[in-house]
Amino acid sequence: LSVSARSLRGTEGTFEGAALAYKDVTELMRAMAIKDDFVAMVSHELRTPLTSIAGYVEMLQDRPDLPDGVAGQLQVVDRNAHRLLRLISDLLDSAQHAAGPVPLVRRPCDLAAVVRDAAEAAAPAARSAGLALELDLPDELPCVVDAFRVAQVVDNLVSNAVKYTPGGGTVRVHLDADPTHVRIAVTDTGVGIAPADRDRLFTRFFRSRDAEDRSIQGVGLGLSIARSIVEAHGGRIEVESQVGVGSTFRVRLPLAT
Ligand code: ADP
């Protein structure tokens, strides 16, 4: 049942009663579960042939005897195949996260290395967008997390920072720890986020009008996936932002859970 409540006030503002509305949302929940199952099934079926395409393109790229111009064309196929693969895995993750808590494989790992690798993966995109990518990380930070999933969070935050920051700007990735938690912060000097949008950023398929207007690629899943992963670890994700100045996304994870 979905319940909503509202107080009823007289002309003077005096409290006169309350109205409660109960709505049966069983059918709606069932329809959403079917939609998520369908998305998961289709995504899974798309991933197999696409992985094969990406693999063969990589093999072709390794050939030393490519005719003129073909290397560039293969690069375009490779880039787009990987974009599609990423979209498919976002859709799959999102459908799975909607169905229940994210399953984690927690292992002892060096979080500094995990964050460094994930952030450095965005270096080529940052370079071609004319952005400085600064890493402010300790040499080592041992902790117990699902390294693959935490890398996905950092990857999403850094990719967003790169996407939403105009050329000449800076993206900074910071990592440190207090006695109980690790803290990751991704700061950019980008377009910023309007106060009205801040609460909705982490919901599935939300994109700001600004992102749509500027034709920045994306479907609005990255931050909802990041939040599911952080919360599955017992952590929190928050944003501070000023329009036209930039944004900082902060993640706090318990050191060992
Ligand atoms: P996507 O980037 O695919 O649209 P996300 O879930 O990652 O989806 O982000 C949701 C929305 O949050 C984006 O469409 C954008 O409006 C806003 N956003 C996310 N990160 C930033 C950022 N660093 N700077 C400005 N806006 C951002």
Question: Summary?
Answer:
By secondary structure, the chain is of the alpha+beta class. It is built from eight helices and nine strands. The strands form three sheets. It has a five-stranded mixed sheet.
Describe the structure.
This protein is α+β, with helices and mostly antiparallel strands and 257 residues long. It contains eight helices and nine strands. The strands form three sheets. Strands 4-6-7-9-8 form a five-stranded mixed sheet. It is globular. The relative contact order is 0.11. Bound molecules: adenosine-5'-diphosphate. Adenosine-5'-diphosphate is lined by residues 156, 160-161, 164, 188, 190-191, 193, 201, 206-208, 211, 218-224, 247. It is found in: Cell membrane. This is histidine kinase.
Helix/strand layout:
Layout: E1 2-9, E2 15-23, H1 26-61, H2 70-99, E3 107-110, H3 111-120, H4 123-128, E4 132-136, E5 142-145, H5 147-163, E6 170-177, E7 181-188, H6 195-198, H7 209-213, H8 222-232, E8 236-242, E9 246-254
Parallel strand pairs: 4-6
Antiparallel strand pairs: 1-2, 3-5, 6-7, 7-9, 8-9
The structure holds adenosine-5'-diphosphate.
Adenosine-5'-diphosphate (ADP) binds next to helix 5 and helix 8.
